[in-house]
Amino acid sequence: MIAKCGEPERRSYLRRLAALGLPVSLSAGGETTAFSFRYDADGGREMRVDTIGEPWREADGPGRALRRVEWVHVAPLLRDDFTPATLERIAYRSRVLLDGHGLVRARRIGALELDGDFDRALLRHVSILKLAEEEAQTILGGGELEKLRELGVPEVVVTFGAGGSLVLTREAAVRVTTRPARGDPTGAGDAFSVAYLSARAGGHRPISAARRASALVSALLSAAPR
User: Fold this and answer.
1) What is the pLDDT of residue 35?
2) Which of 31, 66, 97, 176 has its CA 20 to 30 A from that of 85?
């Protein structure tokens, strides 16, 4: 696990991450990016950007730490957390799944704003692009999700919360359904990404990986306290 946080939180975060039993490389500098959340009665989520952390830099060394890693989940929180050059170094020996948060979330304090004004050069180094439906529509400006193929990424996976996912490859567009589940959806997209990438690294094809990831998210939401 490779992460970055603000200097004041470094010691606490390192201790908590190490407790997970995984190898950890933690860079620190500036502040830690932070959000606040509010859910309405219908389950709609309102997010605010409270603080903005430093982008990843060459000195943070993500490429060096990943020399023997074949599959990488890159999860920026805001646009420009990773430059094309940084992502290129990460992808030099690895296949990258990029979470779409870092493409559409404007780098501003206050109410979270989404727009599709990101540097398309980032996508040259991406093998799998994972997007929530809202992020996908922000990039497209509306229209059919199949148009996401025009981004040039070999695999694009769009998630619909508890409604499953859509897998887009050069050969097919397949909707993967899952059993309904209720629960706090915070973190469900991250869980899907990790499960999907784990399945792909384990030899599963994209559709099979999406089914496994959707089933895991459904199980997590069903088991969560209400």
Assistant:
1) 94
2) 31
Q: Which two tokens stand for residue 110?
A: 């206050």
Q: What is the DSSP string of the chain?
A: -EEEE-GGGHHHHHHHHHTTTS--EEEE-S---EEEEEE-TTS-EEEEEEE-PPPP-GGG-HHHHTTT-SEEEE--SSTTSS-HHHHHHHTTSSEEEEETHHHHB-S-SEE--B-----GGGGGG-SEEEEEHHHHHHHHTSS-GGGGGGG--SEEEEE-GGG-EEEE-SS-EEEE------S--TTHHHHHHHHHHHHHHTT--HHHHHHHHHHHHHHHHHHS--
What's the topology of domain 56-223? UDP-N-acetylmuramoyl-L-alanine:D-glutamate ligase (3.40.1190)
First to last CA, the chain: 30
C-alpha span between 33 and 40 (Å, rounded) = 24
pLDDT at 57 over 60: yes
Among residues 5, 53, 44, the alpha carbon closest in space to that of 27 is found at: 5
The pLDDT of 32-56, averaged and rounded, is 89
As given in the structure block, the two tokens for residue 187 are 């973190």
